[in-house]
Write a structure and sequence with these properties.
By secondary structure, the protein is an alpha+beta fold. The protein contains nine helices and seven strands. A five-stranded antiparallel beta sheet has the order 6-5-4-3-7. It has a two-stranded antiparallel sheet with strand order 1-2. The longest helix is centred in the middle third of the chain and has 18 residues.
Length: 248
């Protein structure tokens, strides 16, 4: 199972350490005999030294792994880590959510959602994995060049929100009137047909919602903004909850 998960994550992409540690634990789960370190290394596509280091770190973090280099590893008897438990409906919700993220979000978030689902599927009973693959709710991905550019823009906006980067926009309002403004991006929201970018607009000195598809140009100013209590995400959400429209 660990090898299958490794292949599905993509042999041509370097595996993240967090993914590797997860697969080591999964490979040891339920075994009655020690798993040789060499077999783990071959499965994960890493060196023996990396396996030894990873297992040592897992042991230090409290994972009950017994064994040693040259002998093999096994989870301590009676201390197996239970698998994640989901109902069929819960799992279907995760699958559908992943499909929607892949179809409508940026590439980075879509890739992360897919990787998370692979981890979940790796520890599911066979019957639940089968159900997950047969859900009838889809979000087809049909991306032409323009749609791909939009997905890349969402990635950029998401990164700027995460790192508190001030943006300079060339923006068209609903009537097509252009304007230039600096904004402090706070969040992205998907409304089932359109995305909006919630932000503090320095030109208007207030919260505004921008449509990413109406942004003609977007560049970073090189500035970062602080978490000011009067114009941070919490204040923005409070304003939205209070029926503040602030549309641009």
């Amino acid at each position: 199972m660990a090898l299958a998960a490794r292949k599905r994550l993509g042999d041509d992409v370097p595996m993240r350490r967090a993914d590797r540690l997860f697969l080591i634990i999964h490979a040891l789960r339920g075994r009655r005999t020690a798993l040789p370190a060499r077999q783990l290394a071959d499965t994960l596509g890493v060196s023996l030294r990396t396996v030894y280091r990873d297992v040592a770190d897992l042991q230090l973090s409290g994972v009950p792994i017994e064994g040693e280099a040259g002998v093999g590893y096994v989870l301590r008897k009676g201390s197996d880590i239970p698998p994640l438990m989901f109902t069929g409906e819960e799992l279907e919700a995760l699958v559908v959510g992943t499909r929607f993220v892949r179809a409508f979000a940026g590439e980075r978030l879509a890739g992360s959602a897919q990787a998370a689902l692979l981890k979940i599927e790796a520890v599911l009973p066979a019957e639940l994995r089968e159900r997950a693959s047969h859900t009838r709710i889809f979000a087809p991905i049909w991306r032409d060049e323009q749609q791909q550019a939009f997905a890349n823009r969402l990635d950029h906006l998401h990164a700027c929100i995460t790192h508190s980067r001030v943006l300079h926009l060339t923006y068209r309002d609903e009537g097509g009137k252009p304007s230039e403004r600096d904004i402090e991006p706070l969040c992205l929201a998907f409304w089932g047909g359109a995305w909006t970018l919630g932000a503090w607009c320095r030109l208007r000195d207030g919260f505004r919602n921008f449509r990413p598809d109406r942004i003609d140009a977007c560049s970073e100013t090189g500035q970062r903004f602080e978490d000011h209590p009067q114009r941070n995400l919490a204040s923005y959400l409070q304003a939205v909850h209070g029926n503040y429209s602030g549309k641009e």
